[in-house]
Amino acid sequence: MAWWPLLLATLAVDAQASTDLEARPTVAVAPGVSATGAAPWLGFVIGDGVTTRLIIHSRFEAKRLERVYPLNLLGWRQVASAARAEGLDPKKPLSPADTQRLDEQLGADWMLVTSYVPGPASAKVRYTLRGGGREQVGELEARYADTTAACETLAAIVLRALGQDPAAVGGHKLEPATADAARAFGEGLALLGRQSLDPRARVVLTPAELHQAHDLFAAATTATPELARAWVERGITSTMLGDNKAAEDELVQAMAQFGDFEPASSLGLYYFYDRQGRASDGLKVLEDATTTHLGFLQGLGYLAEAYARAGRSHEALQTWTSYAARVPKSPWAALQHAAALSRLGKHALALDETQKLLTRFPRSLTVTTALAARQLDAESARDTLARAAELAPGHPLVLTLRAQVALVAGDPASALGIAQEAVKAVGDARGEPLAGYAHVALAHALELAGKRSEAVAAMRRGKELGVSAGDLRLLWRDERVKGLLTDPGYPRELLP
User: Fold this and answer.
1) Long-range contact set of residues 205-210: C-beta below 8 Å, sequence gap at least 24
2) What fold characterizes domain 347-494?
3) How far, in Å, CA of 182 to CA of 164, rounded?
4) Nearest to 272 by CA among 188, 185, 215, 199
């Protein structure tokens, strides 16, 4: 199946990693979690601040007369996506077993996890930094009037553990933010965190929610005009609202504050260009950003996927090959490499790589479901999905694949019940394509149950949620549903 890579979290790559770059440590930063459930906005501020601070960390090598970025970074959004893919809730503290699963899925050398107890004017932050065979635990205070200081301190703790000198960053420190700006920025991130920022994703936030997020980012930039990251999020939100003029102005403001194409503004520009269909402009932004910031894994992942969508499959494979070399412990990276092979028609090799991955990562839901998707026409898919169901029985991807296996096996009654569960479980899926494919499975089962009008409605909903015509081979080759494909209400865009 070609569609399963779209269901996984979007991480990243370096298109031109040399041997010394591949040896750089990879750091993952989890979003902060409130221990009491109060002030959730602070967790986003901490996660975003530490992510930004680490990705811009560099040192100047006088002998080579060049600036070096000495680490690879998986930011808070990527960590949250990996948690969701594993059936974990990134908004809740993780158990030791769940933490180990997430560590294995990310494949990072170091991981920073924070939780906090909010108070009236500050929060007590407890941090855990794991890596190098040891665990460092400590506490610090995050004052709402100066959250930047807490982010700088946490970033310095990580850098010292890596043997880096935080003072070497010089002018790369985070911009300060007032308490009002930090709160508004964090609340805006909390809202936007419910929406995938992959440009392929359907916008599922309501216009009212988008306007609310935009107002929050506007409040943040009014309180602290130098808060470039808030300008970026403001521009992305305007893009989602279809206000391209405002989005362009806001992203220009972000670049003016950063003084360069920093990672955050680059992602904003990429999103802006891609949503307008300006794929080549988006590719150029990502190529420039990932050349400048060599540890910018999120942008590199978007670059690889953008190559694939542009039909540049060999460049996509080259990029994922480099990523897998950069983060060799990451099963996700290896899965993307296998998916790139499959796009080039090397299906047997892709299946073999995925099977070997499951041997290495037997507890990974992401790997297990990926293998099941590749085995969909084989009896072995049932056994693989049984393993996936043990890890996360109600995960919408597991349910969607179980419905498809039942369809292949000629059990439409079971498929219908499971597909209905999948649609209920997935909701709008942050706009990601998984929601669409759950509806395709439902449509397939409804047609076999003789419910044509409901099947047509499910297919139309699938199209709205991002289903691609190139990923419907299971539906197309089933002779029993030819009537659905010729129905006047069936979306023409999803025909063979």
Assistant:
1) 205/240, 207/241, 210/237, 210/240, 210/241
2) 1.25.40
3) 28
4) 199
* pLDDT for residue 198: 87
**pLDDT mean over 263-275:** 92
According to DSSP, the residues that pair with 131 across neighbouring strands are: 110, 134
Residue in 114, 144, 145, 139 with CA at minimum distance from that of residue 124: 139
Structural domain spans, the chain: 4-305, 347-494
How many percent of the chain have pLDDT more than 70? 91
- Do 144 and 124 touch, CB atoms closer than 8 A? no
CA–CA distance, 390 with 174 (Å, rounded to integer): 43
Q: Which amino acid is at 93?
A: P
Tokens representing residue 275 in the block: 């949503």
- The 10 Å Cβ neighbour count of residue 60 is 11
pTM summary value: 0.87
- Average confidence (pLDDT) over 179-192: 97
Share of the chain above pLDDT 90, in %: 64
More confident residue, 246 or 426: 246
CA distance 211 to 230: 15
Cα separation, 494 vs 467, whole angstroms: 8
Using CA of residue 371, residue 372, residue 375, residue 376, what is the dihedral sign? negative
Measure the CA–CA gap between 419 and 397, rounded to whole angstroms: 10
Structure confidence by residue, pLDDT tens digits, 130-163: 998 899 999 999 999 999 999 999 999 999 999 8
- Which residues does residue 111 pair with via DSSP β-bridges, in sequence order? 28, 130
Between the alpha carbon of residue 292 and those of residues 58, 60, 75, 480, the distances in Å are 11, 14, 17, 53
* Topology match between the domains 4-305 and 347-494: yes
Measured CA to CA in angstroms, residue 18 lies from 11, 14, 44, 115, 435 at distances of: 20, 9, 33, 36, 38
The better pLDDT of the pair 293, 445 is held by: 445
Buried b (16+ CB within 10 A) or exposed e, 354-388: bbebbeebebbbbbbbbbbbbbbeeeebeebbebb
- 223 residue type, one letter: A
Can you name the CATH fold of 4-305?
Answer: 1.25.40
Cα 439 vs. chain centroid, distance in angstroms?
Answer: 22
